[in-house]
Amino acid sequence: MKVLVIGAGNMGLTYAEGMSKSKMLKKNQIMILDNSKEKLEELHQISHFDAYKNLEDCVPEADIIFIAVKPYHAEELFGRMATLVKPEQIIISIMAGVTIDTIKKLTGLEKIVRAMPNLPAQVGKGLTSYVTSKSVSRIERLTVESLLDSTGKSILVSNEKFIDASTGISGSGPAYVFYFMQSMTEAALQMGFSESVSKVLVSQTFTGAVELFNQSSLSANSWMQKVASKGGTTRAALDSMEDNNVNELIKEAAYAAFNRAIEMGKENK
Ligand SMILES: NC(=O)C1=CN([C@@H]2O[C@H](COP(=O)(O)OP(=O)(O)OC[C@H]3O[C@@H](n4cnc5c(N)ncnc54)[C@H](OP(=O)(O)O)[C@@H]3O)[C@@H](O)[C@H]2O)C=CC1
Ligand SMILES: O=C(O)[C@@H]1CCC=N1
């Protein structure tokens, strides 16, 4: 089996690295292509996959083609790939808001997997939701799942609506967490802590809270109540968040990402 990754940016390179470490594929089974000259020079320094500049040299060789370019590059890229692809090839696209129908139409292929990963894939803690077109067989789906699992966990969803929805929760979600971390860091600095101490205070608080949550069956709300003593400091903070509608605002933000994914699907038709 040969896998071609197109787009060696944040996500493409992360998947190529993940797959190369997974033992599913050997060195010469991973190809990677990028159109930027500097990227290619960097890729040539990495010994565990073969780097390409021209689609003609690698697309026909691939069994699975992993698309990791920005959504607005899809049309031009698929247009150039259309004459090089073969019906048995599987496309895995991680592009936000580019639908299976659009990929079928632009490539002429039928075996399409649409996936939505997230950035923690870079440290093997990613979450990728995915869905396949009908032409992907069970065996092919399991192979794809093993590739996706090389960067963390994967979840098979029942239809594409849940790919757009998971874009709003897990795909864009790391940025919401960083937003919260940024606000807490700013508060720590304003309270007089140094940058390095602020960073430790915030990051260890996040790591510890997530660890507690993962190691029990308690809900986030139950854990909140465990931290908050009656009439105490946490209650003051939680009341302030409630008064300012923070809960609703976070949900609104997640929906903004979900709706934008749907909108991008229409724009990229
Ligand atoms: N970043 C994230 O957290 C997540 C991203 N995604 C999706 O992943 C995709 C990639 O995102 P990300 O990795 O952040 O993007 P990057 O910009 O980091 O990487 C994309 C790479 O593809 C290259 N590229 C563009 N067009 C072509 C082409 N025609 N042929 C070959 N290479 C090309 C770009 O080069 P150049 O810079 O020169 O254009 C760039 O190096 C997006 O579609 C996004 O929706 C999904 C989930 C999470
Ligand atoms: O912001 C974006 O469009 C991509 C999809 C999910 C995370 N980054």
Could you list some keywords that capture this structure?
Rossmann fold; elongated; binds (2S)-3,4-dihydro-2H-pyrrole-2-carboxylic acid; NADP; ProC C-terminal domain-like fold; alpha/beta; cytoplasm; binds NADPH dihydro-nicotinamide-adenine-dinucleotide phosphate; EC 1.5.1.2; P5C_Rdtase_cat_N; 8 strands; 2 domains; single chain; oxidoreductase; eight-stranded mixed sheet; 13% strand; 269 residues
Poorly predicted runs: none
Instruction: Estimate nothing, just give the exact number of structural domains.
Output: 2
Largest sheet: 8 strands, mixed
Helix coverage percent: 40-55%
Q: Which series of helices and strands comes N to C?
A: EHEHEHEHEHEEHEHHHHHH
Mean model confidence by pLDDT: 96
How many individual β-strands? Answer: 8
Family: Belongs to the pyrroline-5-carboxylate reductase family.
Subcellular location: Cytoplasm
Pfam families: F420_oxidored, P5CR_dimer
Domain Pyrroline-5-carboxylate reductase dimerisation: 160-264
Fold and architecture overview:
The protein has 269 residues and is of the alpha/beta class. It has twelve helices and eight strands. The protein has helices spanning 10-21, 37-45, 55-58, 74-81, 100-107, 138-149, 161-171, 173-190, 195-214, 220-227, 233-243, 246-267, and strands at residues 3-6, 30-33, 50-52, 64-67, 90-93, 112-116, 126-132, 152-156. It is elongated. The structure holds NADPH dihydro-nicotinamide-adenine-dinucleotide phosphate (NDP) and (2S)-3,4-dihydro-2H-pyrrole-2-carboxylic acid. Residues 96, 167, 171-172 line the site of (2S)-3,4-dihydro-2H-pyrrole-2-carboxylic acid.
